[in-house]
Amino acid sequence: MQVIETLAEGLKREIKVIIPAKDMEQRMNERLADVKDKVRINGFRPGKVPTSHVKKMYGKSIMAELVNEIIRDKPSAILSERGEKSATQPEIVMTEDEKEAEKILSAQADLEFTLSYEIIPAIELKSVDGIKVTREVVEVSEDEINEQIEKIAESARTFETKKGKAADGDRVTMDYLGKVDGEAFDGGKDEDAELVIGSNRFIPGFEEQLVGLKAGDEKVITVTFPTEYPAANLAGKEATFDITVKEVASPAKTEINDELATKLGVESVEKLKEIVRGQIESQYGNVTRQKVKRQILDQLDELYKFESPSKLVDAEFENIWRQINTDLAQSGKTFADEDTTEEAAREEYRALAERRVRLGLVLSEIGEKAGIEVTEEEMQRSLFAQLQQFPGQEKQILDFFRNTPGAAASLRAPIFEEKVIDKLLTEVSVTDKAVSKEELLADDAEEGDKPAKKAAPKKKTAAKAEDAAEGEEAAPKKKAAPKKKAAEGDAE
C-alpha cells in the first residue's frame, strides 16, 4: 500500500492511497479460501467446490466487501500512523467510473482513493498562573426568602369575596367575549374565568382595565394583540372584549408559618425556608459560575491564538446563525431593526464561532492532558435531564441518542467542559467579592465574548447567540406558563 501526501497547506491535508491490484487479489483469495470450505452449492460436496467456481460466483461481492472495509478502517489507521487528528470525518473520494470500478472488483486495477481532511493543530499548553478571576457572591437575606415563599404560596392562596371595587391583586371572576372588527374569534370566549389582576396572564392592557369594576358590572374594553402573538390572525390586531363581572375577591393575607408549609407539602416553616434558600443560592450560584467561566474563557482567548479548522468553524457558525435568524423571525425584527446589517452580523458571529472552536480545542487539550473523563453515570444523568425536559417524548429522544452518530457527544461535551473549568478553578487565582443581587444579575451581554461590539445586534439577540455558543445563561429563567386562552399570556 502506498500513502502519498498530495497537499499540506495550513491545516489542510490530502492523502492519496494506492493498494496494488495484486494485493487486493491476494486478500480476495484468502477470503475465498475461507468461503470455499463453508459454501454449499448444488452438485458439489461441502469443501469440494473448485476455487475457480467460488471465485466466479462470489469474487466480486467479496472484493466489494474488502473495498468497503478498507474505506472504513484505513483512514483512521493512516491518521494514527501519521500522528494526526482529523477535525472532522475525512472526505473520501474514489472513482465513480463504472468501468474502472469493474476492473477494481475484478482485481485488474489498483484500488485508489483520496483522503481530504483538516488536522487539529498541535496545542502547547501554557501556564495559567497569571489568570485572575473575581467570583461574585450574593448573601441571601431572610426578606428575599420570605418574598420567594410568598410567590410560591400564591398557588395555595385563598380569596375572600368582597363587595367593593376590584384592585390590583384581587381575583376577578367574569364572562368575556372577544371580537375583532366586531366579529367574535376562536378562543376569545370564556365563562366564569378567574383572573388575578397583576398576574400578567392576559395580553398587555387587559388586566389594568378591570381595576375599579365590581360584581355585576359590564364593560367593553379595548386592547391590541402584540405583533409577535402566536395566533397570526390576531397578531397586531385591535380587539374588544365584552366583560361581565360575576365576583370580586381579595387575597387572604399570607402568613409564613407551619400551616403554610404543610399546604405546600413541607413539614415545617424552617424546612420550607431551608429549601427556598437552597433554590435561591443555586440560582445565584449558576449565574456566578457562568460569569467566572466567562472570565476564564476571555483570558484563555488572550493566551491562545492559532488557526482553527475551517470546517469546525463553519459548523459552529451555522448553529449560531440559525439561532440568530430564528430569534429575529420570532420577534418580527430585521437586522436593520437591530442597528446592523446582515453582512456585519455575519462577520460578528463568524468571529464568535472561531473563538468558540479555538477555546473548545484548548479546553479539550487541557482536559486530555489532565486525564479528565466523563463517566457513564454522568452521561446517564445528562440523558435523564434531557428526558425530563420533554415529557411524553422519552422514546423518541432515547431512539435519537441510540441511533444518531455523534449524538452521545452532545451529552458528553458540556460535562467534559465543566469538569475542565473545575480543574482550572483549582489552579487560577480566585477572589471572592460580595455583591448585591442586582449587581450579580446585571446584564453584561456587551462584555466578555463579544469579538466586535459595534456590529452586534442590540438587546437580547446578540446575548442569546453568545450564551448559546458558550453554554452560558445570563440569569435564572422562569418557565413560561402555557397560553390557555386567546386573551392570555404575552407578558411572559
Automatic annotation (TrEMBL):
Reaction(s) this enzyme catalyzes, per UniProt: [protein]-peptidylproline (omega=180) = [protein]-peptidylproline (omega=0)
Biased composition (Basic residues): 453-462
Family recorded in the similarity comment: Belongs to the FKBP-type PPIase family. Tig subfamily.
Record function comment: Involved in protein export. Acts as a chaperone by maintaining the newly synthesized protein in an open conformation. Functions as a peptidyl-prolyl cis-trans isomerase.
Free-text note on domains in this protein's UniProt record: Consists of 3 domains; the N-terminus binds the ribosome, the middle domain has PPIase activity, while the C-terminus has intrinsic chaperone activity on its own.
Domain named PPIase FKBP-type: residues: 169-270
Keywords: Cell cycle, Cell division, Chaperone, Cytoplasm, Isomerase, Rotamase
Gene coding for it: tig
Location in the cell: Cytoplasm
Species assigned in the record: Agrobacterium albertimagni AOL15
Region annotation Disordered: where it falls in the sequence: 437-492
Gene3D superfamilies: 3.10.50.40, Trigger factor ribosome-binding domain, Trigger factor, C-terminal domain
Annotated GO CC locations: cytoplasm
The name this protein goes by in its record: Trigger factor
UniProt EC number: 5.2.1.8
Signal peptide: none
PANTHER family: TRIGGER FACTOR CHAPERONE AND PEPTIDYL-PROLYL CIS/TRANS ISOMERASE, TRIGGER FACTOR-LIKE PROTEIN TIG, CHLOROPLASTIC
Molecular function via GO: peptidyl-prolyl cis-trans isomerase activity; protein folding chaperone; ribosome binding
Keyword Cell division: yes
Top-level lineage group: Bacteria
One BP annotation, GO: protein transport
Pfam family, one: FKBP_C
